[in-house]
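User: I'm writing a short report section on ligand binding and want a predicted complex to refer to. Could you take this sequence and 5-phosphoarabinonic acid and write out the structure as tokens? A short remark afterwards would be nice.
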Amino acid sequence: MLTIDYANCTSERVGYHGLDPARLGPGSEAASAAASITATLAKSRGTGWERWRELWNEPMRAEHVSGVNALVKEHSGRFENLVVLGIGGSALGNIALHSALNPPTWNLLPAKHRKGPRLFVLDNVDPDNFRAVMDVCPPKDTLYNVISKSGETAETAAQFMIVRDMLAKAVGKKASEHVVAITDPAKGTMRQICDEAEYATLPVPEGVGGRFSVLSPVGLFSAAMCGIDIEGLLDGAKAMDARCSDPDLTKNPAAMLATLLCELAARKGKTNHVMMPYANSLYLMADWYRQLWAESLGKKTSVDGETVYAGFTPIKALGATDQHSQVQLYREGPNDKVFMFLEVGAFESDVTIPKGLGVENLEYLEGASMTALLNAEKRATEYALVESQRPNMTIHVPRIDAQHVGEFIALWEIATSQAGHMLGVDAYDQPAVETGKKATFGLMGRKGFEGWKGKVEEGLGGTGYVVGE
Ligand code: PA5
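Assistant: Sure. The structure tokens for the complex follow:
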């Protein structure tokens, strides 16, 4: 079970820069606000944009798991490569699951030592990156998993158009056997393409937005193809959801997380939130968290129509690596951050540092385990931050397995919905992303968006402020 140790967010540890523990205890304003939000969320769960909270419950769970497993069975052993095409919420969760739960050397392992195909997730239109992956994934040996709820996303659409063309040239009429699409079950451009080409499809369920979709077929299909225990993920999420339904703030991990981060921002100006896993495999989980926290809460306008400029800046760092890169700033730079360490109890393997080097200054390392060293470094950084009065907390992950990763995902999704209420913003829209999308359409000549090209050129017209021209 994941735990959160938040002692270092209190004034007892970090003085002025922490919260008075009485403000979080029974009968406090924060405790009754959290209880009321928990009750509101209990009513709205499963409706509107909060359908994601039913992904680990029946009937959605069985429907998705059986759909995913049927396609995994059909495609397993047939392909050397699985290439995921998607972006944002249609890619970050896939990358995070794979990197958390499979070895970092997965693609380098011989097939007999892998529980599935090599996996490449293409979440950009960088031509060098795209070409490099295409060069090592011949279409005849590759299954393409295109993920787009809308089908309108330019990056994913462009990638898919190239892949379709390549496939048609390489395998002709068998092209459709190389595609599994995940999209809206009923509407949208991708749905139309899938119906016409008779691709195998899985749904992005209605009411499940991109950044809340990792535990839907969006994340589950590529995970299951690569041998990840998807039932374990869903079990973990369900267990965390039960804990996060407790009206008692001190027993509800998501409510406490949201309360700490919102209160430290509002009262102490800590608007930057650094996630620092002490585990390489969880580093890309921090990328998933960054999208969830940034896109959901960064809003100009509240649900009441007031201008609020809400939100926090999520930052990622890796322990112990970034102790040698970022910690100088974190301890002596602006005191405007909260640090969230992810600490692992037991790694899958451990490595013992051998004895016998015979150098006095390094004797302390002899016979120690790498886990002990890594966790000592985390403890030492925690201490150093407390000494500099920098609020921080530790999310303790007993082991990195599907159950605990599922818990972690549900924890942050529910904390995000809690924080949306605390800030008074809609956590499910992303109005500010639209301008960039429309301007791109205009610049690329999409019908109906002609005016945007002029707007962009006028707005960014020659300034003369260019060094080196
Ligand atoms: O969280 C979101 O809603 C976004 O990040 C989307 O997932 C992203 O823009 C991709 O959208 P789509 O799945 O429609 O291609």
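A remark for your report: The chain has a mean pLDDT of 97. The two ends are 58 Å apart (CA to CA).
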